[in-house]
Design a protein that fits this description.
Layout: H1 5-10, E1 15-16, E2 44-49, H2 64-70, E3 78-80, E4 86-88, E5 91-98, E6 101-106, H3 120-130, E7 146-153, E8 156-161, H4 168-172, H5 182-196, H6 202-211, H7 214-223, E9 241-247, E10 251-256, E11 269-274, H8 278-287, E12 292-293, H9 301-305, E13 310-315, E14 319-325, H10 335-344, H11 347-353, E15 360-361, H12 384-392, E16 400-406, H13 410-424, E17 428-434, H14 437-445, E18 451-457, H15 463-471, H16 488-499, H17 503-520, E19 523-528, E20 531-536, E21 540-541, E22 544-545, E23 551-552, E24 557-558
Parallel strand pairs: 1-17, 2-11, 2-12, 16-17, 16-18
Antiparallel strand pairs: 3-4, 5-6, 6-8, 7-8, 9-10, 10-11, 12-20, 13-20, 14-18, 14-19, 15-19, 21-24, 22-23
């Protein structure tokens, strides 16, 4: 086991490349009203978030902070419960009527926050938008196989896919599948057309999009930079909360939607406050300034557990942290170099020394709770002598100097320092470079890095989402493949896994591809860390936390004050 002291000493060797950081101003100010002490009477739940959301537009980003907020505003066709099982959402039932056709029956009697009725037209408008090249959505890979949304009736649609796509229901449960009203989408497109000075009408644009071709592409290119001006500022969903106010960098306020048709809620308002510093979030939690604190670091877990009015909630996760290599740069195009590094990194020491034992070491890119995981895979073991042997046989027999890029997450930085120390034992000199989150994502998407550490959460709990974005050669850069890994056999197996309607056949494909990814080592799969949440029990109770890291407020209530 690594002693915790090692990382503080070694942090002195980290080279910081700091970009603009989120402001910590006003983190000590209480936001909003206090929760009622009478259970069920309503009130405000204050949540301290480590990061600000990027946008309220479901198609505008794929970050966890935005997803946490958007999932309370928008309902998807299919929900995931707290155990990540698929359950009815805006679709009451669904089935594959043909290999490439899925039928969905829609919930009736549902209204948007604007008061408009939810119908099949809103489903079509939402899915057509996410796949529109003018939108250039980072989450389009989730739905790109959908060729047509056929409106069968006001409350029924058929989704026609380019090929048989078995995990479609799981993909539709993703927060990016939140259904927006057609009215909101129409206004967003109209604003983009107006801003671009286009003489094409909204209806003409939709007709051009259906036809495709050069004329449509020209208009799409013309309006692309203006898309999202409305949907990034306003919302119109059907879920239990609606956007009341947003102050970027500070807070987002959501208020209860009284006409919500899918269950009762015992609170009136939820305020998500941006408090980047962990200790500031904990101080607010201790004093009741916030009711919930997200992304608790493991070093603070005991403090919350021992607090008189605080509770630690832990959930196993479907998140995988990994050490990635830029395979478009030497020497990481050499599999022997990658395998040497994989053998040199003791993943158990990172879990115990950095994460205090919260979580498990990764044996493959998939967490055990993800469908498609194979527990019988042969993982790479820790063997420093074997690592030295592989490096001596590689293109870099005498070792080399390189950089390891990280964001400003403390545990990731500590993991990087451990890796820096471990690789020095086999002759690799590593300089750790730290960047602010947004800059880090841009730089790694552009391929500016050598090595990097990042996490990926398999939100759909299906192997397709956990592997396709990260390792298919179609997804270089921002969609997920920041290793720029290309392997034709892997591409073929990943295509097989998503198109084969037979579950056993899918499992075989994913088992094979996982073993290749272990052996080929485009990344070192480090760990599946637990998600930790702090709750002030004097304020709220019945708070849930799922394996994706979502705070579940469905059953939240205010704690009864003791006499």
């Amino acid at each position: 086991m690594v002693k915790r002291g090692f990382k503080y000493f070694l942090l002195l060797t980290v080279v910081l490349v700091l970009a603009a950081c989120s402001s910590d101003e006003n983190v000590d100010e209480a936001a909003g009203g206090e929760g009622s002490t009478e259970e069920g009477a309503g009130g405000t739940i204050n949540i301290g978030m480590s990061e600000d959301m990027v946008t309220v537009d479901p198609h505008g980003s794929n970050d966890s902070a935005s997803a946490q907020i958007r999932r309370n505003i928008y309902e998807s066709l299919i929900f995931q419960d707290e155990a990540l099982e698929l359950t009815p959402g805006l679709a009451t039932e669904w089935e594959a009527t043909e290999d490439n056709v899925w039928n969905f029956k829609l919930r009736e009697g549902t209204t948007f926050h604007s008061g408009q009725e939810f119908t099949a037209a809103d489903v079509k408008a939402t899915i057509d938008r996410v796949n529109d090249p003018a939108v250039a959505s980072q989450v389009a890979f989730l739905y790109e196989m959908i060729e047509e949304v056929e409106i069968v009736g006001d409350y029924e649609v058929n989704l026609h896919t380019e090929y048989a796509f078995a995990p479609l229901p799981a993909h539709l449960s993703h927060n990016a599948g939140g259904i927006m009203s057609k009215d909101l989408i129409d206004r967003d497109y109209q604003a983009a057309l107006d801003e671009a000075g286009s003489d094409v009408t909204l209806e003409e644009y939709y007709e051009l999009r259906e036809e495709g071709g050069e004329e449509f592409q020209a208009v799409a290119d013309e309006i692309s930079e203006h898309i999202g001006s409305v949907t990034g500022a306003e919302t119109d969903g059907t879920n239990h909360l609606q956007l009341a106010d947003r102050s970027p960098g500070d807070s987002v306020t959501l208020s209860r939607f009284d006409d919500f048709q899918n269950g009762e809620r015992e609170f009136d308002e939820v305020i998500f406050r941006v408090i980047p510093e962990t200790q500031a979030r904990l101080a607010e939690l201790d004093t009741g300034g916030i009711d919930i604190a997200n992304e608790i670091d493991t070093a603070s877990a005991e403090r919350i557990q021992n607090g008189d009015a605080t509770e630690l909630i832990e959930s196993e996760s479907v998140r995988m942290n990994y050490l990635g290599f830029n395979m478009e740069k030497e020497p990481f195009d050499d599999p022997l170099v990658r395998q040497a590094i994989a053998h040199a990194v003791d993943r158990d020491e990172i879990i115990n020394g950095v994460y205090d034992g919260y979580g498990i070491t990764a044996q493959s890119p998939l967490a055990p709770d993800v469908w498609g995981y194979d527990e019988g895979l042969e993982s790479i073991d820790v063997d420093v002598e074997r690592a030295k042997e592989l490096l001596s046989e590689s293109s870099q027999p005498d070792g080399f100097k390189t950089t390891l890029w990280v964001n400003d997450d403390a545990a990731i930085v500590d993991s990087a320092v451990y890796i820096q120390n471990a690789l020095s034992e086999i002759g690799i000199t590593v300089e750790v470079q730290q960047s602010e989150w947004g800059a880090f994502l841009d730089q790694t998407a552009n391929g500016e890095h050598d090595m990097f550490i990042l996490g990926w959460t398999t939100v759909t709990a299906d192997a397709d989402y956990g592997l396709y974005a990260l390792f298919h050669s179609k997804n270089f850069g921002a969609p997920g493949n920041r290793s720029f890994y290309k392997n034709e056999e892997v591409d073929t197996l990943l295509d097989e896994g998503r198109t084969n309607p037979d579950e056993a056949g899918r499992q075989d494909a994913y088992s094979e591809v996982q073993q290749i990814l272990i052996d080929d080592s485009p990344a070192v799969y480090l760990n599946h860390t637990s998600f930790l949440l702090g709750v002030n029990t004097d304020g709220v109770s019945n708070i849930g936390l799922d394996p994706v890291g979502n705070i579940r407020l469905e059953n939240a209530s205010f704690s009864t004050e003791e006499e």
